[in-house]
């Protein structure tokens, strides 16, 4: 009986959440959450710690996932997408890869000059001013539209980002109803319980049900993402509307929104620290799958990190907001970690082989 009451209250909360966001977005959101949440009390183990034995093997058959990323038509986004797609094509054909097809979800509302180079699906941006300068708020809305309108053959989807480079062939890390995600050290739901409870009521369970993840990288079954995506969008907008939440979460607000939306649907992720590395903090490649070059890499000529201070040698994507980086970036000095050296080598290989690179 208690579990039945929990399901009813959970459904009521999701309906109220969707209705509230409907008005907040000036009648934009017609895709309110209509799916029953998975009962959060069903798990007999914690998938964040252990994976059930029956899920560990896939019987040798490849289970492909569709690679999808959201993007704008700004030069900064375009050159990153071109490098990302170059390495996708190289890694996809490797024997251990389970990559399927690729889509750049372009939320500019109109085609751009990369339509013939990169498989692209054009969707609408949020109404003008609704993102309040936080352009990432368009990401969940873009996924909602894509999932509604596109034909996606694969059963699973990898949500990726333009500044991801595939460094090793990526298998399908998800297992059935358990998606695979990357644990970010700065996503800390348990340390922000007062805020999280605004969006994840106590009847859903402990705040630790909210995974320390963002939406990317995540490999998830398509039907689960179809349920989560509208809630993710609604929670993102509600969080942005709340000054305390907005101020506290800042640029990672949309990441928290995805984590909360997943928990609202009873979906927990297998946390894979080997999913990706983030130079300059992660030093070695090993058998990780993605390089995420979100941080600037600054070093002196002794190979010492000077983070927070512009180095004598540096690679920072934000140095190229208005156009692509040049071909043949100089290699870092001796002593710089393997992760940074590999990143530069891979950027250089891509830019050397992408036709018309300077037109990004």
Question: How would you portray this structure in words?
Answer:
This protein is α/β, with parallel strands linked by helices. Helix content is 32%, strand content 12%. It has nine helices and twelve strands. Helix 3 (75-92) links the parallel strand 1 and strand 2. Helix 1 (2-24) crosses helix 6, helix 3 crosses helix 9 and helix 4 runs antiparallel to helix 6. The strands form three sheets. A seven-stranded mixed beta sheet has the order 3-2-1-4-7-6-8, sandwiched between helices. Mean pLDDT is 87; it is low at 1-10 and 12-50. It is globular, with a radius of gyration of 21 Å. It has helices at residues 2-24, 53-56, 75-92, 138-149, 193-196, 222-241, 243-249, 253-264, 338-353, and strands at 65-71, 99-106, 120-122, 156-160, 164-166, 180-181, 218-221, 270-271, 276-277, 290-292, 297-299, 313-315.
Helix content: 25-40%
Can you count the beta strands?
12
- Going by helix content, strand content and strand pairing, the class is alpha/beta
| Euclidean distance between termini CA atoms | 59 Å
Rg, rounded, reads: 21 Å
* Global morphology: globular
User: Biggest sheet, open or closed, and with what strands and sense?
Assistant: 7 strands, mixed
Portion in strands: 5-15%
Tally the helices: what do you get?
9
Walk across the major sheet and give the strand order.
Answer: 3-2-1-4-7-6-8
Uncertain segments are 1-10, 12-50
- For the residues shown, what is the average pLDDT? 87
Question: H/E element string?
Answer: HHEHEEHEEEHEHHHEEEEEH
């Amino acid at each position: 009986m208690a579990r039945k009451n929990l399901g009813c209250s959970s459904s009521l909360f999701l309906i109220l959440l969707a209705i509230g966001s409907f008005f907040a977005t000036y009648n934009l959101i017609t895709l309110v959450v209509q799916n029953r949440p998975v009962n959060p009390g069903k798990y007999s183990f914690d998938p964040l710690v252990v994976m059930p034995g029956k899920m560990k093997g896939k019987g040798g058959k490849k289970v492909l996932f569709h690679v999808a990323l959201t993007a704008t038509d700004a030069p900064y986004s375009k050159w990153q997408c071109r490098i990302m797609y170059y390495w996708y094509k190289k890694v996809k054909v490797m024997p251990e890869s389970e990559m399927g097809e690729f889509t750049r979800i372009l939320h500019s509302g109109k085609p751009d000059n990369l339509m013939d180079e990169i498989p692209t699906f054009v969707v609408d941006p949020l109404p003008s001013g609704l993102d309040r300068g936080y352009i990432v708020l368009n990401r969940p809305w873009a996924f909602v539209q894509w999932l509604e309108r596109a034909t996606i053959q694969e059963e699973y989807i990898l949500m990726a980002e333009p500044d991801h480079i595939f460094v090793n062939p990526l298998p399908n890390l998800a297992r059935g109803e358990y998606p695979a995600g990357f644990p970010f050290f700065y996503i800390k739901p348990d340390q922000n319980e007062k805020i999280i409870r605004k969006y994840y009521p106590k009847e859903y369970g402990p705040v630790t049900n909210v995974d320390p993840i963002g939406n990317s990288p995540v490999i998830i079954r398509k039907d689960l993402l179809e349920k989560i995506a509208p809630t993710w969008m609604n929670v993102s907008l509600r969080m942005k509307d709340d000054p305390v939440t907005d101020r506290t979460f800042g640029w990672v607000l949309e990441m928290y929104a995805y984590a909360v939306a997943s928990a609202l649907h009873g979906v927990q992720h297998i946390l894979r620290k080997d999913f990706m590395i983030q130079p300059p903090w992660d030093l070695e490649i090993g058998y990780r799958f993605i390089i995420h070059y979100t941080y600037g890499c600054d070093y002196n000529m002794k190979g010492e990190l000077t983070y927070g201070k512009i180095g004598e040698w540096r690679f920072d994507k934000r140095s190229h907001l208005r156009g692509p980086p040049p071909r043949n970036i100089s290699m870092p000095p001796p002593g710089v970690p393997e992760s940074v050296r590999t990143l530069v080598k891979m950027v250089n290989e891509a830019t050397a082989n992408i036709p018309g690179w300077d037109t990004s």
